[in-house]
């Protein structure tokens, strides 16, 4: 039953985000009536919803009302590792309609976004800028714990320019700039991501060393010493990955390297990795890969792996250089 009611749980979390439950309870307990009034919601339905949230561990009963739990705090917009945007994005209509076609994805081995949305996933985001902005923010929040560890293991010796390829709002590039004052960064992504990247750079006080560029990484990648590919290759087929990696190889300055941050999967991977693999099948017709499969992609693109460093499980930072 826990598996079967999974959709209820996901949409309840989305409702908690939509009602700003974490923010309302941040300063102490409140009653259902107070929250309903603040949100313009039905008081009876709000009370019933809070009862459901208590059963999920998001809130507890307190002082005639409800108090937030530690679990709820990750849905606060200002939490250090907030999952608010991710919760909203992953339970949004575009995702939900695609996940509903997972059986068809398994039968066909193909992406289901065209059948679900009428177009490819990234075309849909470009056509719906509000959802595109939410997706970019969601990827930034999902990336935060991985980025925090990845920046600690990336060697920047001799580098002056880092290029965040497909970097959305530039969270990885900005983390690199914050740690290494001598670096400058370029973020390359589709046009709908550029305003969010510029806003994130301004908010972090790093805009003077940061440039957001709109473009297509299947056509050209800006030159740099370190090229970051975080959660990118799992979006694409093997042939597309080879084309992208080849463009990255051509963009490398002498002595430069490509840094790939992805899930590395095997037949015994626990937890989220095998589920993410199926999600990528349905949404993009793509996959999570084994280390051997990454090595094959790199070889086909004229590159070779130099290191593979585990960070936040199940993610690994893979560094590659031009093959000699």
UniProtKB/TrEMBL annotation:
<keyword id="KW-0489">Methyltransferase</keyword>
<dbReference type="InterPro" id="IPR001077">
    <property type="entry name" value="COMT_C"/>
</dbReference>
<feature type="domain" description="O-methyltransferase C-terminal">
    <location>
        <begin position="99"/>
        <end position="303"/>
    </location>
</feature>
<dbReference type="GO" id="GO:0008171">
    <property type="term" value="F:O-methyltransferase activity"/>
</dbReference>
<keyword id="KW-0949">S-adenosyl-L-methionine</keyword>
<dbReference type="GO" id="GO:0032259">
    <property type="term" value="P:methylation"/>
</dbReference>
<dbReference type="InterPro" id="IPR012967">
    <property type="entry name" value="COMT_dimerisation"/>
</dbReference>
<dbReference type="InterPro" id="IPR036388">
    <property type="entry name" value="WH-like_DNA-bd_sf"/>
</dbReference>
<dbReference type="InterPro" id="IPR029063">
    <property type="entry name" value="SAM-dependent_MTases_sf"/>
</dbReference>
<feature type="active site" description="Proton acceptor">
    <location>
        <position position="234"/>
    </location>
</feature>
<dbReference type="Pfam" id="PF08100">
    <property type="entry name" value="Dimerisation"/>
</dbReference>
<protein>
    <submittedName>
        <fullName>Dimerisation domain-containing protein</fullName>
    </submittedName>
</protein>
<dbReference type="GO" id="GO:0046983">
    <property type="term" value="F:protein dimerization activity"/>
</dbReference>
<dbReference type="Pfam" id="PF00891">
    <property type="entry name" value="Methyltransf_2"/>
</dbReference>
<dbReference type="InterPro" id="IPR036390">
    <property type="entry name" value="WH_DNA-bd_sf"/>
</dbReference>
<keyword id="KW-0808">Transferase</keyword>
<feature type="domain" description="O-methyltransferase dimerisation">
    <location>
        <begin position="6"/>
        <end position="70"/>
    </location>
</feature>
<dbReference type="InterPro" id="IPR016461">
    <property type="entry name" value="COMT-like"/>
</dbReference>
